[in-house]
């Protein structure tokens, strides 16, 4: 892409990034803002993201600058596509690998047919309970704050729409902790961690999300996204 000047960033850019593992979406936004400020020797510029990704997920995060930050709500409403891995036979409090395994479950009864049949229970409009390890607010407090204090809290279920939930591979079936890889096409507000957790329950077992990658938001694809290193090089060339 051609080199952009400060006015381009102020008028607004929609930038696609491939978020690295263990970064928060806010760290990515802060890094982009800092790089722009450093390059153009300015004190401030508007920068925001159009939908967060958990630290343990990789993939597409859209970052808007300047006047394009006004399009963030529209971008957040776009359909999302994810790929990832669910590990069966064990649960965690966060529904992913952010916290330790807290319970083990039987998996010997799980067959390939059962796995594929279970996905159909999670397509279309479904009611989903967000994980307590999330940034949603209740009584002015983030849910993860209740979780870290060891407090239980009533989290209302929310309606989400899952267009597609497909198992793409099955590994170690018959072992204590089989793994399945999947593809999900879903609406705004869907928690893939909750989907992974509920999937295990529907199999009369338990499960957690062991890998996640966002590959698309609407027409924006991760294969066209920049790494933060790419962006830094583009800015300074």
Please give the CATH architecture of the largest domain: 2-Layer Sandwich
Q: pLDDT average, as an integer?
A: 94
The CATH superfamily of the largest domain is Pseudouridine synthase
Q: Rounded to an integer, what's the Rg over CA atoms?
A: 19 Å
GO molecular function, one term: RNA binding
Organism: Psychroflexus salarius
EC number: 5.4.99.25
Enzyme class: isomerase
Structure report:
The chain has about 240 residues and is α+β, with helices and mostly antiparallel strands. The chain has helices spanning about 5-10, 25-40, 70-75, 110-120, 145-150, 190-200, 230-235; strands spanning about 15-20, 45-50, 55-65, 80-90, 90, 100-105, 125-130, 135-140, 140, 160-170, 180-185, 205-215, 220. The model has no long low-confidence stretch (mean pLDDT about 95).
What layout of secondary structure does this protein have?
Layout: H1 6-11, E1 14-19, H2 25-40, E2 47-49, E3 57-65, H3 72-76, E4 80-88, E5 90-92, E6 101-104, H4 112-119, E7 124-128, E8 137-138, E9 141-142, H5 143-148, E10 158-171, E11 179-186, H6 192-202, E12 207-217, E13 220-221, H7 228-236
Parallel strand pairs: 3-12
Antiparallel strand pairs: 1-3, 2-3, 4-11, 4-12, 5-6, 7-10, 8-9, 10-11, 12-13
Helix pairs in contact: 2-7
Catalytic activity: uridine(55) in tRNA = pseudouridine(55) in tRNA
Active site: 54
Family: Belongs to the pseudouridine synthase TruB family. Type 1 subfamily.
């Amino acid at each position: 892409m051609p080199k952009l000047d400060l006015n381009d960033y102020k008028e607004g850019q929609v930038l696609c990034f491939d978020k690295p593992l263990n970064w928060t979406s806010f760290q990515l936004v802060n890094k982009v803002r800092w790089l722009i400020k450093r390059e153009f020797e300015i004190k401030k510029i508007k920068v925001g993201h159009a939908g967060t990704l958990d630290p343990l997920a990789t993939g597409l995060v859209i970052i808007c600058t300047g006047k394009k930050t006004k399009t963030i709500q529209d971008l957040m409403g776009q359909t999302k596509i994810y790929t990832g891995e669910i590990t069966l036979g064990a649960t965690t409090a966060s529904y992913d690998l952010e916290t330790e395994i807290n319970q083990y479950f039987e998996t010997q009864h799980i067959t390939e047919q059962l796995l594929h049949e279970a996905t159909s229970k999670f397509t279309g409009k479904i009611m989903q309970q967000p994980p307590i390890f999330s940034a949603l607010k209740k009584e002015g407090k983030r849910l993860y704050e209740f979780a870290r204090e060891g407090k239980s809290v009533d989290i209302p279920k929310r309606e989400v729409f899952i267009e597609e939930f497909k198992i793409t591979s099955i590994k170690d079936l018959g072992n204590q902790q089989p793994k399945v890889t999947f593809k999900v096409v879903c609406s705004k507000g869907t928690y893939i961690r909750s989907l992974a957790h509920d999937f295990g329950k529907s199999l009369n077992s338990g499960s957690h999300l062991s890998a996640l990658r966002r590959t698309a938001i609407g027409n924006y694809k991760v294969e066209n996204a920049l790494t933060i290193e790419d962006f830094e090089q583009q800015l300074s060339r």
